Amino acid sequence: MEETPSPPKRRLSCATYFDALWFCYSPVHQMQQYYRLGSLDNCSGKWTSLVDCLVLKTKRSSEVQEILETREKGKSHVWTFRTPEEASVNWKEQFGDLDEVE
Q1: What residues have CB less than 8 Å from 56, skipping those under 6 apart?
Q2: Fewest CB atoms within 10 A around its CB: which of 1, 44, 54, 73?
Q3: How many domains does the chain contain in total?
Q4: Which secondary structure element, helix H or strand E, spans residue 92, and what is its range?
Q5: If you average pLDDT over residues 59-79, what whole number do you get?
Q6: InterPro entries under this entry (predicted)?
């Protein structure tokens, strides 16, 4: 009887979250935010991610794997798949005015 291979264990590294937080406070990022949105970024989302990572570091590795797998399953997919009918309706909503002859 063959065993099903378990998914590879992910190593939890908080360095990427720290780097993202560090970049958030950089003048480049802040000026981009100000130009695009008209306000500076308070970086609260980056702080939350870093603290969450540090909290996960205090848990047992089995717990961490379970939490990470649950989060991965909960994320929505990058692409939204549509049936041909749904795609047609969406296309007409988005670009239907292009079909009109002037």
Answers
A1: 12, 64, 67, 68
A2: 1
A3: 1
A4: helix 84-95
A5: 84
A6: Pants/Emi1-like
Q: How far is CA 5 from CA 2, 8, 73, in A?
A: 9, 9, 18
Crossing angle of the two packed helices 44-56 and 15-24, in degrees rounded to 10: 160
40: CB partners within 8 A, 6+ apart: 30, 33, 34
Q: What is the pLDDT of residue 74?
A: 82
Burial class, 46, CB count within 10 angstroms (exposed 0-12 / middle 13-18 / buried 19+): buried
What integer is the mean pLDDT of 27-45? Answer: 96
Residue type, 98: L
Kindly give the interhelix angle for 15-24 and 27-37, rounded to the nearest 10 degrees. Answer: 60
The pLDDT, as a whole number, for residue 7 is: 58
Q: Is 4 within a domain? A: no
Task: List the domain range (segments joined by +) for residue 81.
Answer: 15-97
